[in-house]
Task: structure prediction
Amino acid sequence: MEGIFITFEGIEGCGKSTQANLLYDFLTSKNIECVLTHEPGGTPISEKVRNILLDNKNEEMDSLTELFLYFASRAQHTVEKIKPALKSGKAVISDRYFDSTLAYQGEGRNIPNQKIAEINSFATGGLIPVLTFLIDVPAEIGMNRLTTKDRIEKESLEFHNRVRGSFLTIARENKERIKIIDGMRPIEEIRKEIASIVLNYI
Result:
């Protein structure tokens, strides 16, 4: 039986990584085989690309270079880690995937979404998560939660507001797949809501 592909999305500091880890722990406790991963990265090759993408020294990086590096990382991640796990019947939980590219490089960098969607489909073989949790918080809150900032996190508040707006638009256009979660609530309350949704889906 094919596994289930679940992703977590949101702006920096929204709490998605925490919730991805908590869901992994919860499903594991239910004896459901899981793989927990993240983007950019997730495999040795993809992690090397991640280091280039997030290095604060690479301020001169062009937007298209950034876009193609994200797709290079994702292509390797998908073929090496995600698809084999799904094929073996495991649940795959990824901290970020395709929706982040639409939000950050599409709205954030003003690259046409149609082009992004076409390249992503080619890079991933058309793989789409069956369930996505968008952990939503105001951009100012997310930024204030960060103690250190990488190259993307150091972008302006206006940039992160555009990214948040894009995530919400994407969610409204994909209501069946994407569940908007209020990230301003207590961590445990959010965890229970997500666990309930996933159990009902399974």
Q: What stands out?
A: The chain is about 55% helix and 15% strand. Strands lie at 5-9, 34-38, 91-95, 131-136, 178-182. The mean pLDDT is 96.
